[in-house]
Design brief:
With 308 residues, the chain is of the alpha+beta class. The chain has one domain: Sulfite Oxidase, Chain A, domain 2, CATH 3.90.420. Strands 1, 4, 5, 8, 9, 10, 12 and 13 form an eight-stranded mixed sheet that branches. Strands 3-2-11-6-7 form a five-stranded mixed sheet. The structure holds the ligand Nc1nc2c(c(=O)[nH]1)N[C@H]1C(S)=C(S)[C@@H](COP(=O)(O)O)O[C@H]1N2 and molybdenum atom. The site of the ligand Nc1nc2c(c(=O)[nH]1)N[C@H]1C(S)=C(S)[C@@H](COP(=O)(O)O)O[C@H]1N2 has 16 residues, from loops.
Length: 308
């Protein structure tokens, strides 16, 4: 048995969530008073009694205010503070996700069906953006495999292609994004079926704020953040490797796999270290963002410099 010293016990285990959040909000006073003000966490979280995932890290969570005010969501602007300002125009209901392609039972899922399809878990994941910052977020969701197995993939299904909503009316900043929209992403079938691949409907025990990709997004903790596509409307199982947004924009800088890899630098900067938001000092980046035990075997024998 592992006997933990008191300092290693998460405050969430000994304090009701609302209370410890308030304490942490006080502790992160600089952030709360500065750029991150005006975004209080809803007092009553939607999800309770969430199962704790065995895949959760015990590292300190990045404050809610930071996770919901420092975002990449180009459909709502390219500056980090713009999604929180502008994503209020996103209508997240009604919402459907079509799961289609090389499957025996294609189906359009309503967001309310998605919420009830499998038991929701809390998964506290490290999330590493290709730009060199990282966060730790208690996401809510279940493995993507849960929804994929319900549509019965055929033997022809080799990859999964994802598509975000793109509606110019709801996303007027999208025309300045400088990237082709709708945002698209992809995974190889085994990556999509890996239990770590999270279909995510919430964070901090509540539904996703719009700027974080409401009402449903992917979270792929061993890959750079841009693989974790937001506000998904279509999931298509396909035979061939599908296009992915940043690879379309610049295939020299962004590969299809985009696994976190400290020894493969971005052409314009090093990927050896990262800054956890809120920290002063940088820390070393870990291979597969520290998820090698769960994912490394999927890439055995692959040249990860070539397939970056
Ligand atoms: N549709 C869409 N999904 C997206 C993006 C985007 O611009 N549009 N940005 C990606 C990038 S670069 C990152 S780092 C993460 C950021 O997620 P977060 O804002 O919840 O931290 O979302 C990813 N998913
Ligand atoms: Mo990113």
């Amino acid at each position: 048995m592992l006997i933990r010293k008191p300092s290693s016990i998460r405050s969430s285990e000994i304090t009701p969530r609302g209370v410890y959040l308030n304490r942490r909000q006080l502790l992160s006073g600089a952030a709360a008073l500065g750029a991150f003000s005006g975004l209080a966490r809803p007092a009553l979280a939607k999800f309770d009694g969430l199962a704790k995932s065995k895949y959760s890290t015990t590292e300190p969570e990045t404050p809610y205010q930071v996770v919901t005010s420092y975002n990449n969501y180009y459909e709502f602007g390219t500056a980090k503070d713009q999604p929180a300002k502008y994503a209020g125009t996103l209508r997240t209901r009604p919402w459907t996700v079509s799961v289609e392609g090389e499957v025996a039972k294609p189906r359009v899922f309503d967001i309310d069906e998605i919420l009830k399809l499998a038991p929701l878990e809390e998964r506290i994941y490290r999330h590493r953006c290709v730009e060199g910052w990282s966060i730790v977020v208690p996401w809510v969701g279940y493995s993507l495999s849960e929804i994929l197995k319900r549509v019965e993939p055929t033997s022809e299904a080799k990859f999964v292609a994802f598509q975000s909503l793109y509606d110019r009316k709801q996303m007027p900043q999208g025309v300045y994004a400088g990237i082709q929209l709708p945002y698209v992403e992809g995974l190889r079938m085994d990556e999509a079926m890996n239990p770590l691949a999270l279909l995510c409907v919430g964070l901090y025990g509540d539904v996703l704020p719009n700027q974080d990709g409401a009402p449903v997004r992917m979270v792929l903790p061993w890959k750079y953040g841009f693989k974790s596509i937001k506000s998904i409307v279509k999931i298509r199982l396909v035979k061939k490797q599908p296009p992915s947004t940043w690879n379309i924009e610049n295939s020299h800088e962004y590969g299809f796999y985009s696994n976190v890899n400290p020894s493969v630098d971005h052409p314009r900067w090093s990927q050896a270290t990262e800054r956890r938001l809120g920290d002063f000092f940088k820390r070393p980046t870990q291979m597969f963002n520290g998820y090698g035990n769960e994912v490394a075997q999927m890439y055995a024998g692959m040249d990860l410099r070539k397939y970056f």
